[in-house]
Amino acid sequence: MGKLTLDPSGIQRQSMADPTLLELETAMLKKELVTGRFIEMQNDSRGLEYTRCMIRYKTKNIVVPVSQMGIDFDNKSQEGYSENEWVRRTQIANSMLGAEVDVIIKAMKEDDFGNMMIIGSRTEAMRKKRFMYFFAERPIFREDIDEIEVRVISTAMQSIRVEAFGVEKIIKMNELSWKWMIDVREQFSVGDVSWVKVKKITMERENRTVDMTLSHKDLLPDTASAAIDKLEPGKDCCIGTVTGITEGTYWPIFINLDNDANIVCYGSRIADTAMRGDKVKVAVTFIDYKRKSANGIVVGIIDRNSI
Fold first, then answer.
1. Is 87 helix (H, G, I), strand (E, B) or coil?
2. What CA–CA distance (Å, rounded) separates 228 from 293?
3. What is the pLDDT of residues 159-199, one digit of tens each?
4. What are φ and ψ of residue 285, in 5° steps?
5. Which pairing describes strands 167-172 and 159-164: parallel, antiparallel, or unpaired?
6. How far are the Cα atoms of 13, 58, 173, 228 from residue 291, in angstroms, in the given order?
7. Is residue 20 a contact partner of residue 59, using CB atoms and an 8 Å limit?
8. pTM for the complete prediction?
């Protein structure tokens, strides 16, 4: 014998004793966005493409297949990620644990144990947000807006991945801070909400895609340039921290001085080699005050803290 529900969708009415299920049922029927926290990934013996991501909403978990997590590759050669599509998707998803994300509920059904399984899609939620903010008849995003809040959904040593109204972008370290940093994760964490400046935006209405150029440092005072103005070549010997080394060689190396100035060193007067994280002594040899750039030479290693 079969069963027929009151609702044409086939969804059974939930008990009023569980208001969270009722909220999710209503959101599903109305195709409303639900905001939750990405708390867990569950692997599947069938392969990485069947990985399930758990989004926590109040007292319930929403299951989102990794294929529905809205993970796009805007840089195929991004450092630290595999070229294999599903390995890379799960790597990026894993880096998003703890992030706040939006989903659209696609189905609610009982599993083999009689528990309610809630299935969602972040891909569809992001598509809906892009339409609401950029392509609707009266879009929320206006032409005069140049500062927006974004969610930090992933972090790496030299960049963060953010989500803004259904658009994901990577912001590199040189757009996060005026002064060079060893690791941007000292200032940014997954789950943060941060203000950024919209430097450029491109919209394609045909396929409803949006591209943005974003900067966090443009909302901050340029302390690095102000610090360079106080230096004198041939006279100043400063203390700083090695923040980066040119790949494949030890020169040039990039140093943030304790006064916030950034300086590039092309040589050393010592036999040892300074590494990322080391505290060093630098002789300032050249300054371009117009371009706010400085060069120097490493003259000593004060403290080893190599990363």
1. helix
2. 7
3. 999 999 999 999 999 999 999 999 999 999 999 999 999 99
4. -110, -25
5. antiparallel
6. 66, 51, 19, 10
7. yes
8. 0.85
